[in-house]
């Protein structure tokens, strides 16, 4: 594991400000006051299975009730509620029709150009049923994998729900990934169909989707794919392959608005979502139906304190786990009204978020620190887009997700967006955890900027050393979860061994879930602060990327001999990608270096996707290596930050190289 470089101030470890939950909030909250929180924690501690069984019975509708709560016989391949049967789409849609929410707005779709469409629970149910029948008409069935490569849309959510309805396992690929990334995922998942759109509309521009699907399929190896279903969004010009491609409107046109849900066992894989690890290709994180949905619904109630009249808005994309749990499933499972946003935060102006909150009277707003930091900058430059110019009085709760929120950004969010009235839930979790793990409860937990505070009831988070022994509060270590929980990753698709070694390493005793983050608990309060990844995973704008993936993309270019990628702190994006590259030709300088750096950035964009483009590229004749040939990444991290190397470099084979690598191209 790489060393855990902690910038104490940045992570708020020196933070002394405490913000108790506003009293009015606590009075009506689902979990009101720390006594209520403690009581739930005690319930979990005294009867772990009983606690989860109670919650699963209270918060989900089961077609066949489960009798077996947790099966640990094949650990770490844990099974939850395994003999129970249910359907996720039934829990998100049908039960809302049965409990009086049929005419309630499920989705307020805010298009890129500001057009709004309201979709009721009844409408959404009908759309999903038609979609599901359409999928069935093409022979897609329970257990099949379907890739969804779509922009933010009602149809994107409906596609996920339709797969769930028929028991097909979906794998959403973020619309910003390249053809090559898409192809890799299609092959690994063995997908039988792809659901996409002609184009996506973002920031006033039309960007290709279907053309990228065509390109991915043309790369070969995707023989399992029989159907490409295309939602017509922009009416842009696209190629059509007869027999394989079908318009969504043609597929669903004559389908019935009723579709009996396919009852699946609780462990049935609801979805696979690819995410980056420290080595190799992206991992297909496999989630279950029962345990996953339970936590998506329950965290809507506990963390977001969702109430019938709330308007919830999570700004994530359905291509990420946040968009799965807090757009496609969680809000619908609790019958909430939510905004689904197609656009970008800076179009037509950097006031778009605030304007949209005012327009739809959003009461719960959930976004990423990167977005907050970039909007702080924008409003510093242009006073007109400052939140004070918008009516944000509908807000009652704010959330943050995806990366550490620095105390200054937290304070700005608290003062200017929440107007010191709204608690902030800084939710720590991961693709693998399915839902929130460590977060304040808005009606209970006193908040400290920069700290995600305490684990949710039932989540046995702890900090241990490299041998798996508990470390005392005040001392940093490795974040683990000591007991399995219902919404945890079940396996890595096609790679159970990688699942076991990545998440349940023998060094920690083989029983603790290894999150991959470092953390420290406050001496007095026991609050957790996440200090960053302890592996070679970067977090750029809340997007997770493996340094190895970017390195592999770089060396795949014929001019590159060797590459090493590290993260460097960035004021806006949290971390930025810095690549050190050795070319097969002589080390370029000046204009040539600039030209080649641009070429390589675009190359990485093509290989992985624009989000993986290095912000900086530095060329050297070699990389700093030990005598045994190992790249000394810790030195590269210091160089990337622009700092002077004070560490011991006696094992370094080629110290002269360090000077070359100080300057970016
Ligand atoms: O490093 C942690 C960081 O994001 C990683 C998980 O990334 P991903 O699987 O893409 O899921 C992001 C959305 C849940 C974690 O290992 N992270 C996420 N939330 C926080 C965070 N770091 C600090 N504070 C958070 N609230």
In a few lines, what is going on in this structure?
The chain has 19 helices and 30 strands. With 665 residues, it is of the alpha/beta class. A seven-stranded mixed beta sheet has the order 5-4-17-16-18-19-20, sandwiched between helices.
Bound molecules: adenosine-5'-monophosphate-propyl ester
Q: Counting H and I runs of at least 4 residues, what is the number of helices?
A: 19
Main beta-sheet annotation: 7 strands, mixed
> Looking at the structure, what is the overall shape?
globular
Describe this structure in words.
The longest helix is centred in the last third of the chain and has 18 residues, at 590-607. By secondary structure, the protein is of the alpha/beta class. Helix 4 packs antiparallel against helix 5, helix 5 (121-137) packs across helix 6 and helix 10 (290-302) crosses helix 11. A hairpin with a 7-residue loop joins strand 14 and strand 15. The structure holds adenosine-5'-monophosphate-propyl ester. Adenosine-5'-monophosphate-propyl ester binds next to helix 11, strand 20, strand 24 and strand 25. The site of adenosine-5'-monophosphate-propyl ester has 21 residues, from helix 11, strand 20, strand 24 and strand 25.
